[in-house]
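[stage:ingest] chain + small molecule (adenosine-5'-triphosphate)
[stage:ingest] validated
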Amino acid sequence: MKELVIIIRPEKLETVKSILDDAGCGGMSISNVMGCGTQRGMTEDSVNLIKGFKTTINLLPKIRVEVVVPDKKVDGIIADLRERIPTGHVGDGKLFIRNIEDAMRLRTGERGDKAL
Ligand SMILES: Nc1ncnc2c1ncn2[C@@H]1O[C@H](COP(=O)(O)OP(=O)(O)OP(=O)(O)O)[C@@H](O)[C@H]1O
Ligand SMILES: [Mg+2]
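[stage:predict] done
[stage:export] tokens:
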């Protein structure tokens, strides 16, 4: 099992939901977060304008999607994200991939992939 932590632009949430639905994911968790990447929260235009000047960090609204999936689904989901999420501009987001040791559906006690 792997956990995919997908941080995206808010307007891409529907696309991510549809990718995860198509992959047959058993669930997902979504949160609103504030964040920045290498541009420290500047937009593409302002980065070009003030390149070389020291600035403070600005945080932009993003959405964080957490989903735990069986190993066999990981590559397909990643390929779909790579195909459908980028706009070609900075700030498209990031994907973190974690190993998950085990899971349990609390209602039934099912473990592993069956719990997802
Ligand atoms: N190293 C990181 N650790 C945790 N969260 C991060 C990290 N990098 C990016 N994020 C999260 O992802 C969001 C989008 O990052 P972003 O796409 O701007 O990354 P980037 O490395 O600057 O790439 P790009 O140059 O394409 O903008 C950030 O606002 C932040 O919420
Ligand atoms: Mg960035």
